[in-house]
Amino acid sequence: MEQDRPCAEEPNDPRELDCMYKEADRVYYLFARDCGLSTCAYWMLYDVERAGGTVEMRVLSDSWAYSKQTINSAIKAMEAKGLIELGFVEGSRRNKTVSLTEAGEAFADRYIRPAQQAERRAFCSLTPQERRALLDHARAYTNALVAEMNRIRATAAERNGKGEDA
């Protein structure tokens, strides 16, 4: 059946974009696995490094669509490997920070920063006009997708609300 094909050949079919996103996700999954990390742990370390070595746990939770449990498991695994340490936000007894340890800095030098540099090289291999167009189009598509998905969610919530009243 035509609908079951994983990728579309027509440029007006969003399945091609889905395939590209999945391919990029697979690249990061394989890279994280080669680093000895889960994908979630990789992205958490990526964000800690990008933040300069320390970031609030709340920022990590807010940045990703991972569940709190998944993030906490990734944090515990990285802590057990000695890559990060947890602390508290100054003046708080509740809000935690995640910081790279010396081993975490070495890990970031070996795996995270080279990946970030590869991303930059790949992005900069496009012309400035291509980069701008890519960002503009990706933003427009994401905004349209969010609006469409929110519309579906609102309709489902209405239906569920009416179904509960009946």
Please provide a written account of the structure:
With 166 residues, the chain is mainly alpha-helical. The protein folds into two domains: 13-125, Winged helix-like DNA-binding domain superfamily/Winged helix DNA-binding domain (Arc Repressor Mutant, subunit A, Orthogonal Bundle); 127-166. It contains six helices and three strands, in the order ααβααββαα. It has helices at 15-35, 39-50, 57-63, 68-80, 102-124, 128-165; strands at residues 54-56, 84-88, 96-100. A hairpin with a 7-residue loop joins β2 and β3. The longest helix has 38 residues, at 128-165. The model has no long low-confidence stretch (mean pLDDT 90).
The level of helicity is 55-70%
Q: In sequence order, what are the helices and strands, one letter per element?
A: HHEHHEEHH
How many strand segments? 3
> What do the pLDDT scores average to?
90
Strand content: 5-15%
Main beta sheet strand tally, sense and closure: 3 strands, antiparallel
Name the poorly predicted regions: none
Please state the CA-atom Rg, rounded to the nearest Å.
Answer: 20 Å
Would you give the CATH topology of the largest domain? Arc Repressor Mutant, subunit A
Number of domains: 2
Shape: globular
Helix/strand/pairing class, anyone?
A: mainly alpha
Key words describing this protein structure:
166 residues, globular, 69% helix, 2 domains, 6 helices, mainly alpha, three-stranded antiparallel sheet, 3 strands, Arc Repressor Mutant, subunit A
